Amino acid sequence: MSLILFWIFAAIMLAAGLGVVLSRKPVNSAMCLVVAFVALAALFITLDAFFIGIIQVLVYAGAVMVLFLFIIMLLDLKSESTRKLNIPACVGGVLVVGGFVGCLVKVIASNPAFHATKPALSGPVDDVREVGMILFADFNMPFQIIGVLLLVSTVGVVLLSKRQLE
Hints:
Distance between the termini: 64 Å
Radius of gyration: 20 Å
CATH superfamily of the largest domain: NADH-ubiquinone/plastoquinone oxidoreductase chain 6, subunit NuoJ
Structural class: mainly alpha
């Protein structure tokens, strides 16, 4: 049952990712991104990574997407006008995606570790403690840098969207 749910959520996530890329309206793209984030959280939960799944919903689908929607609405972006289809760019994109999928299939087929089943858990695992220790011990500086980067980008968007008084 867990494997079936994994593939269902993987398909939902891929469809939502296509919706993000193909949507002409920025708000619709952001909403598709929320669906992709929630489907990714469900994938983590099917892989028994409960803490990461919950954090995915709280941080990304919650806080970050609210920030994105605020910025989109603050900038008052209009929907993108339809353009003429660029055939060489489409052919190049299909070739790149095909090459990537071919390489991915070759790597998965050649490595026996991808065919192994996941090991059974020996006992209760303290996800929160382990993730917290790794995050704040080994990755403290990158964690702080990302927070400052998000703050600076939000302030920059607000300043760029501020109307000039003439």
